[in-house]
What does this fold into?
Amino acid sequence: MDPTIINEAIKAFLGEIHSRLSEATRIAKAAEACALAGSVTEAVTLSMDIEQLSYEAGRLQDAVSLLNRLSRE
It folds into this structure.
């Protein structure tokens, strides 16, 4: 496999991980604000959106790790 292509893919995946985790951070802050304002149920509902973003970030990290291993072979 061409190392240049792998490196570009890894960079793109890391950017996607950053994007998803940044969004998760924004959601967590909003959920915390709701909870502090007394709307705990709304906070929990908001925070549930973090689960999908976390899952996607994890799968992207798996892909980064795989590509990194393949680039060393």
User: Anything to note?
Assistant: The two ends are 9 Å apart (CA to CA). The first helix runs from residue 3 to 36.
